[in-house]
Amino acid sequence: MYKKKQDEIPTKDDVGIKEAIEKWIETYRLRSKYDESAIVNAWPDIIGKAIANRTQKIYIHDKKLFVKVESAVIKNELALMRRQIIGRVNEYVGHVVVEEFVIL
Q1: In order along the chain (104 residues), what is the average pLDDT of each group of 10 residues?
Q2: What Pfam families has UniProt attached to this entry (predicted)?
Q3: Strands 100-103 vs 64-69: parallel, antiparallel or unpaired
Q4: For the CA atoms of 80, 83, 98, 40, what is the dihedral angle to 10 degrees?
């Protein structure tokens, strides 16, 4: 019969890796930068690959999402979807990170 070693027995102080990383992010106040980089990396999933391929630059500053696109048609489409995009971005991270959407 297999007997667990003392090191293998979980204790109440043990935390998962996800919980440890979340605690580390909160402790060092990196949540906003982490969320901003997550949004930039997930831009194709949030907005779609067709529009993401025509996006030249994307960044977040002072709760404003700045997006530079190359096409006037894409600019117009993004302007019409402004509220939906803000909602999708905030839904992706789980809380309000973006309050305004600026098209460059």
Answers
A1: 61 81 92 93 94 94 94 94 96 94 95
A2: DciA
A3: parallel
A4: -50
Q: Which string of DSSP letters, residue by residue, matches 37-103? A: HHHHHTHHHHH-HHHHHTEEEEEEETTEEEEEES-HHHHHHHHHTHHHHHHHHHHHHTS---SEEEE
| pLDDT given at position 15 | 80
Read off the DSSP letter of residue 20.
H
Return the structure tokens found at 87: 């909602």
Burial readout 90-102 (b: 16 or more C-beta within 10 A, e: otherwise): bebbeeebbeebe
- Tokens of residue 54, six digits: 């025509």
Residue the block writes with tokens 């803000």: 86
**Residues recorded for the chain:** 104
Residue 7's pLDDT is 61
Q: What Cα–Cα distance (Å) separates residue 64 from each residue in 60, 81, 91?
A: 6, 15, 15
- Tell me the C-alpha distance between 96 and 70, whole Å: 28
